[in-house]
Design goal:
The complex is a heterodimer of chains A (311) and B (437). Chain A has 311 residues and is mainly alpha-helical. In chain A, 76% of the residues lie in helices and 1% in strands. In chain B, strands 1, 2, 3, 8, 14, 15 and 16 form a 7-stranded mixed β-sheet that branches. Chain B has a 5-stranded mixed β-sheet with strand order 11-10-12-9-13, sandwiched between helices. The longest helix of chain B is centred in the last third of the chain and has 16 residues. The radius of gyration of chain B is 22 Å and the shape is globular. The chains are: A mainly alpha (311), B alpha/beta (437).
């Protein structure tokens, strides 16, 4: 009797007006896809454990004074305020901005130019494509070490400059030339990637467009400007979004070539983050990481919106 | 190349010639009464050891003898590079996965000790090392470097301090006396420097000027200065002694007898081989690098106490054997440290790594103190011993990394002519005071 009453109560229990449709919708959505969720579960758990939880912890640490051993002490926005007034961090921000502007001003343009050349029927085209892409496949540390040797006082660059009666300097010891030297090495290493991406996109542009442009009397520049560039719009967004994110996180080249010196002239945001980490200032290191992430997310958002609007 | 760079590359750099013949002798060991472990817990235990020495490590070869004597202690030896240990150590300790023992650069000790990352070795040792009081087995400078707030936080394994390396053949040829003070050193540099391409600037046989805290601190100490006040609460390296020291150091560049050796200069060994550098200051570890990298210069170089203004002085660094604060097997780790610091094993620091043992008995061993054919038969340890005794370690403050960086930036700015020495040091001191607050 009691069981029957309970069954009746359960069956007729009020569940709220929207509960039933929501449950039905959820059941419908997940019906038949259970095995899919089981398959993605390990990856989801790994992402939660190794990405989202550390990100959340890091976000918390950015509001604390934390040295990695003693319990974090809540300091609110103090880390962010200190960074905003810290001349070393501000110098690192300036250096990173210069790096991004120059590397992204030169690299993609070189990539586009070389892709345009390689898109023509050249002799040894395959050889050139391979040659441009080899630095991309080479470890950044190896590239930086080679450039360090090329740029040292008795290196090949100074030998060539001397032969041409051009002024020589100790490129990586001179605060005025150290950052441009690191940028040069980075552009050399990276533009092959942009070349390959642009080349693939160019080859996807239908030939008919070019033929139509030629019929309309467009010369080579006209075809490039009015057919190739519009056809590359989405590729350009991709190259710049990825490029700016990578350039803003520059570290390996700086670490190998200059370690941030001389006199902080090549210190970058990520190098500064590592410095704070090594100094056991984990709170400030986390704050730097979040500032960088927020700025990059904002820049990427703006880039994509601007290009979408033009589309 | 400074000691940091050397340790970064030590996997490839330090194959000290002739060491192999000594390996067997060092590796062989037998139980000694002082180290016997009759009172120890013999429950089988595995300890993890992190070591940054690279292929020239004196730690790894000693482990076979350790296993023979302490069969119940298994050592999980992990060779890591210098940079890796410096970044991993903090994370490992804070996450409870610390090794039981690690070789740590003495320049990291100020930060680690003041942050509580290191175990108090006074407790685990009872103040004794292999049956003798620790204080009797190290130099005064070494003991200071091992001590934080009255407790031992590390055991000095190899010691680093700076002396003057100079081209003995050129000194003899030009009749230059080995300098003992700053003015003699400047005069020697003037007598050595040569302009070989006729452009009016000396380009050969120069004094190497390194823009780092190691070198500046050594000059500062030689002039009676200090980095921080006794309470470690305020920068004092911009005192008149500090400014004079930097002016003296910069003087080599101003009169064209020195060469600025920044990151873009390449490896020093190339400068030695080309004859660009005829004088530089560095630690005992560099003897091994010279033998390996410049064998053609054998017999041409010698080492002397670094010339000074008021008193002999040098920065003091090296490698410490440390137990992390939350090590799982501190007793077994201490047993290993004691074993490594037996004089016969500690000698391995010189024979394997070409560096100076921290332990006085090892440093005074006839296997270490002997004429060195590379340096013209000079017993170089007669220079290193007093240098170590007068060397000073960096201040033990949590902010040491930032202080080191501020000083190095200031020194670079002055040497490159971006600021006057006074201005550069004042700016650096202001930064340091801000950090200390």
């Amino acid at each position: 009797m009691v069981k029957a009453a309970a069954r009746e109560t359960t069956a007729t229990a009020p569940r709220g007006p929207a509960a039933a449709p929501v449950m039905r919708r959820l059941r419908r959505r997940f019906r038949g896809s259970g095995s899919g969720y089981v398959l993605v579960l390990p990856a989801m758990l790994a992402a939660i454990a190794f990405l989202y939880v550390p990100m959340a912890l890091s976000a918390y640490w950015s509001f604390t004074d934390f040295n990695g051993l003693l319990p974090p002490r809540w300091v609110g926005l103090a880390n962010y305020r200190e960074l905003a007034a810290d001349p070393l961090f501000l110098q690192a921000v300036r250096n990173t901005a210069v790096f991004v502007l120059l590397a992204q001003g030169i690299g993609p343009v070189l990539g586009l130019a070389s892709a345009a050349l390689l898109n023509n029927k050249l002799r040894f085209r395959g050889l050139f494509r391979t040659a441009y892409f080899i630095p991309v496949m080479t470890s950044l540390v190896v590239v930086a070490t080679i450039w360090k040797m090329l740029l040292n006082s008795n290196g090949l660059v100074n030998v060539i400059f001397g032969y041409l009666h051009l002024p020589t300097t100790s490129w990586l010891s001179n605060p005025s030339t150290a950052l441009p030297s690191v940028i040069a090495a980075s552009v050399w290493q990276g533009f092959g990637f942009e070349t390959v991406i642009f080349l693939a996109a160019m080859q996807a542009i239908p030939r008919e467009y070019y033929e139509a442009a030629m019929v309309d009397g467009a010369n080579a520049w006209g075809r490039f400007r009015h057919v190739t560039l519009p056809g590359l719009r989405r590729t350009i967004i991709f190259v710049y979004v990825i490029g700016i994110i990578q350039a803003s996180q520059v570290f390996d080249q700086v670490f190998v070539m200059t370690q941030g010196g001389p006199i902080e002239s090549t210190n970058t945001v990520v190098n500064e983050l590592i410095n704070r980490f090594n100094s056991l200032q984990l709170g400030q290191a986390s704050a730097i990481a979040y500032l960088l992430a927020v700025v990059l997310a904002f820049v990427s958002f703006v880039q994509i919106r601007v290009f979408e609007r033009r589309d | 190349m400074d000691r940091r760079q050397f340790l970064r590359r030590s996997g490839a750099a330090l194959a000290v010639s002739g060491a192999s013949g000594l390996l067997a002798a060092c590796g062989a060991s037998s139980p000694t009464p002082a180290a016997s472990s009759s009172g120890q817990n013999r429950t089988p235990v595995t300890i993890t050891v992190w070591d940054y020495y690279g292929s020239s490590t004196p730690v790894k070869p000693a482990l076979a003898g350790f296993k023979n004597r302490y069969p119940w202690i298994t050592v999980n030896y992990q060779g890591l590079d210098w940079d890796t240990i410096s970044t991993k150590f903090t994370v490992a300790v804070s996450s409870g996965s610390a090794p039981d023992m690690a070789t740590l650069d003495m320049t990291w000790i100020p930060t680690y000790a003041s942050t509580g990352l290191l175990m108090d070795l006074s407790k685990v040792s009872g103040g004794m090392l292999n049956g003798k009081p620790i204080r009797q087995q190290y130099s005064g400078g070494g003991l200071n470097a091992m001590t934080y707030q009255g407790h031992y936080v590390t055991m000095l394994f190899d010691e680093d301090c700076y002396a003057l390396y100079y081209r003995r053949d050129l000194f003899e040829k030009k009749g230059i006396s080995v300098p003992t003070n700053w003015s003699e050193m400047r005069a020697a540099a003037k007598a050595l420097a040569q302009d070989t391409n006729g452009d009016g600037k000396a380009d050969k046989y120069l004094m190497e000027i390194d823009p780092d805290t190691f070198h500046y601190a050594s000059y500062l100490f030689q002039n009676g200065g200090a980095i921080l006040d006794p309470a470690n609460s305020k920068a004092v390296f911009n005192s008149p002694q500090g400014v004079q020291a930097l002016e003296m150091y910069k003087g080599f560049l101003d009169d064209g007898t020195g060469i600025y050796w920044g990151p873009g200069q390449g490896d020093r060994i190339a400068g030695l081989n080309s004859g660009t550098v005829a004088m530089f200051e560095d630690g005992p570890y560099y003897m091994g690098i010279m033998k390996d990298g410049a064998p053609n210069l054998a017999g041409k170089w010698a080492i002397a106490t670094a010339p000074y203004s008021r008193k002999p002085g040098s920065y003091l660094g090296g490698t410490g054997l440390s137990i992390p604060a939350n090590a799982a097997h501190a007793d077994a780790a201490w047993t290993l440290i004691q074993y490594l610091l037996e004089p016969r094993n500690s000698v391995g620091v010189a024979t394997y790594s070409g560096a100076a043992p921290g332990l006085s008995a090892a440093l005074q061993s006839p296997r270490v103190q002997k004429p060195d054919p590379y340096f013209g038969g000079q017993d170089t340890w007669k220079v290193w011993l007093p240098t170590m005794a007068s060397a000073t370690h960096y201040p033990y403050v949590r902010q040491w990394n930032n202080i080191d960086r501020a000083i190095a930036d200031g020194v670079s700015a002055a040497l490159l002519g971006k600021k006057t020495p006074q201005q550069a040091l004042d700016d650096a001191a202001a930064q340091v005071d801000g950090r200390l607050r």
